[in-house]
């Protein structure tokens, strides 16, 4: 009786351990796939950030600002400069 009990207990523990290993391995694969997807998204965000920085640099150049001010806002250089003193 005692040998049978220990054998069945050992078999149950071995099966439980095997099922735990299978579950943990599956979870590891799921989490690794999720990690890869997040890394891909991060890479895309870094590329987008670089593109936006380049676009910002291009739009902030003096010649671009001046041409847009003339074209869109109808701004122009003053014809003459007048100084007004306030008392």
Could you tell me how far the N terminus lies from the C terminus, measured between alpha carbons in angstroms?
A: 114 Å
User: Which regions are unreliable across 5 or more consecutive residues at pLDDT < 50?
Assistant: none
Q: Share of helix among residues?
A: over 70%
Overall geometry: rod-shaped
Largest beta-sheet characterization: none
Order of helices and strands: HH
Question: What count of domains describes the coordinates?
Answer: 1
> What class do helices, strands and sheet pairing give?
mainly alpha
| Share of residues in strands | under 5%
Task: Explain how this protein is built.
- This protein is mainly alpha-helical and 87 residues long.
- The chain has one domain.
- 79% of the residues lie in helices and 0% in strands.
- The protein is built from two helices and no strands.
Concise summary:
The chain is built from 2 helices and no strands. By secondary structure, it is mostly helical.
List keywords for this structure.
87 residues, mainly alpha, 0% strand, rod-shaped
Reconstruct the topology from this structure:
Elements (H helix, E strand, L loop, with lengths): L1 H58 L2 H11 L15
